[in-house]
Structures are given as structure tokens and as C-alpha cells.
């Protein structure tokens, strides 16, 4: 099995958010962070009307997150993804949505550790890239530390998997929406820290509720890596600090409104012009790309006008890079 890319910092898989356009944008802000696709089901890959696995090589390092519970289908999709150039396959054992539960995968699989192990084993035998698990700390009443340990140990023993991304909340499979499941069950970082302490041979990545990258970096004394989700998406400028802090190990006094950071963000947007032109030439819409960029300048002078331009103008049939150029002028002129 090939060696892992560094997982010291990664951006979480987020349904409808971490699309290929989003990942190209995020890659313009950080060269080293591990990026994850939104969850893609085995059914979509096998029976979909278009190719869900396509991505741009500039997104690498990139992991495919799969949703499914059939070992044969998962192995087929993992092998196909490896042929496309993905660097990792990740199995979703954390999503609590009704749709996912109806498909018998996601967080409900925490109650079926043997099946998860069978799925991981099948994928690992089919590919030469790492296969990992993203899970919660528990589900419903199955939320003790002992339950989590048994779940992890079963998977490790029966599949050989030693890499786990753990959202430090349990999931309620009934009564809470996915949004509520991200907010209502309390965070329990200490349980994840204890897991790493008790099983130092495991690679443990902490996910859930992380917003400040300096604080997130400080948690590396307890775990092997951290994964940010919604904060990285809604306030993507924080990604500009990731490479220095997490990969160069240089202290970061991160002032999001500093001229240096704003200039970096402007250059990142401008670096995307060739990619956008190419996508538009294929018939794709500007708004499909820029919707992921709306929050880039949050808190910066001119950001209101930036958001307005992208929200109101990017969907027009004739929209092209001139929309971005003009929107950037609001930021440049306000400096």
C-alpha cells in the first residue's frame, strides 16, 4: 500500500459543497491540505448518467469519499477511482441523513462493525491506495467509549485499517436533521484524544466544530491531524494560513484582514481565470464555480459588493471572468 499524503490538515467532505469546482478553488488557497470529495454513492458511480469521478489533477492530493455498504460494489468503485488518480478512498460511516439510512449506509453502519470491516477489506484488496474510515463517536444509545473502541478494534482486526477520521459527536439516527446532528450532540474531543492515547499505532484525525486554525494546530499534540468543514467553506480565507502553520511549522499570527492576506486571496482568484475560461468553453456556468467563492472576503472592506456581484450577476448566461474582475475591484479599491 502506498504511503499516505500528510493528513495534518484536511477539508471535510460536504454534500453539495465540496464539488470539483470548490476543490479547485480551495487548492488555489492551500497546496498541501488534503481535500475530500462530497460523498458519492456506489449507485451513482455504477448507474449514474454521467461520470461522478471526474476531477482535475490540480486538486490533488484528493480523496474520494464513498457511500455504500455492499463490499463488491465498493471494491469496484474504489478500483475505478484509483484508475482516475485519486490518492485515497474514504468510507462514509458518519452521515445520519434519512436518505443515507434508507440506503443502509452512513452512520447507521456503526452498529455493524463486521460489515464495515468487510467493506474496508474488500476495497483494500482491490486497490493500492489507502482506504480510510470517517465515523462518529457513537450513534443513539451506543455512545460509550467502550462501544467506540470495539468498533475501531473490529475494523482494524478484520480489515487492517488503521486510519480513522472521527467526528467528535455522536449521531442521533431519528429525530434530528443532518444540520441538527452537526450542532446538538455535544462535542467530545477528549474521547478522541483518549482513543489516540490508548491506540498510538492508529492514525486519528479529529473532525467537528473546529473553526480557528491556530487552536486546531494546538490539538496536534493529541491527534495526528485535524479536519475542518463548514468554517473552511464559509470563511475560505483561513485556508491561506494552512501551509505555513501545518506544513512549514512556522508560527502564524493570522490576521485575516491584513493587506498580505487580502493580496494573497486576490491572487488566488486571479489564478483561477484560465480554469474558469476552460470550464465556460465546455458550457459550464460561472455561477457553478463562483458560488463556492462568495465567502472569501468575509470581514474585509468591499466584501458586501463582492458578494452582491457574485450572487446577482454570475448566473447570467453571458457571465464570464469579467464578473470576477469587476467584483475584485471592490476589494482592491477599498484597501
TrEMBL record:
Keywords: Flavoprotein, FMN, NADP, Oxidoreductase, RNA-binding, tRNA processing, tRNA-binding
DUS-like FMN-binding domain sequence ranges: 11-327
SUPFAM superfamilies: FMN-linked oxidoreductases (SSF51395)
Residues annotated to bind FMN: 13-15, 65, 134, 167, 207-209, 229-230
Gene expressing this chain: dusA
Source organism: Thorsellia kenyensis
Reactions catalysed according to its record: 5,6-dihydrouridine(20a) in tRNA + NADP(+) = uridine(20a) in tRNA + NADPH + H(+); 5,6-dihydrouridine(20) in tRNA + NAD(+) = uridine(20) in tRNA + NADH + H(+); 5,6-dihydrouridine(20) in tRNA + NADP(+) = uridine(20) in tRNA + NADPH + H(+); 5,6-dihydrouridine(20a) in tRNA + NAD(+) = uridine(20a) in tRNA + NADH + H(+)
Residues annotated as catalytic: 95 (proton donor)
Top-level taxonomic group: Bacteria
Residues annotated as site: Interacts with tRNA: 92, 179, 182, 307
GO molecular-function terms, A-Z: tRNA-dihydrouridine20 synthase activity
Gene3D superfamilies, sorted: 1.20.120.1460, Aldolase class I (3.20.20.70)
Its EC number(s): 1.3.1.91
Cofactor(s) of this protein: FMN
Role noted for this protein: Catalyzes the synthesis of 5,6-dihydrouridine (D), a modified base found in the D-loop of most tRNAs, via the reduction of the C5-C6 double bond in target uridines. Specifically modifies U20 and U20a in tRNAs.
Keyword Flavoprotein found: yes
Protein name (Swiss-Prot/TrEMBL): tRNA-dihydrouridine(20/20a) synthase
